[in-house]
Amino acid sequence: MQLVSIIGAHDSLRFAEIEEHLPTASTSTISKRLDEFEEAGLVSRTQYDEIPPRVEYALTADGDEVRTRLEPLLEWATENR
Predict the structure, then answer these.
(1) Residues in domain HTH hxlR-type (predicted)?
(2) Of 6, 20, 28, 33, which shows the fewest CB atoms inside 10 Å?
């Protein structure tokens, strides 16, 4: 849920920027979740042909809809910790 919310709060993010928002999550976990969300059609991955290579992640329309529906739940969870 956090990953969708973090990406949705920005137009797009690079992997290192996502990691900064999730300091307690391992690199492999974040990578695995991004792959799963991409396969599910929630996240798009854009790779640019640059040196050094640049990859950015953004929410798809379906991902944005999921984020919109998750926001009230995340707000509630934050208030009731």
Answers:
(1) 1-81
(2) 28
Residue 78 has a pLDDT of 84
Determine the average pLDDT of the residues in 46-74. Answer: 93
Which residue ranges form the domains of the chain, and what is each CATH number?
Answer: 1-71 (1.10.10.10)
Q: Residue 2: is its pLDDT beyond 90?
A: no
Separation CA 78–CA 51 (nearest Å): 40
Can you list the alpha helix ranges (DSSP code H) found in 9-60?
A: 15-21, 27-39
Beta strands in the chain (DSSP E): 13-14, 43-48, 54-59
The one-character DSSP state at 81 is -
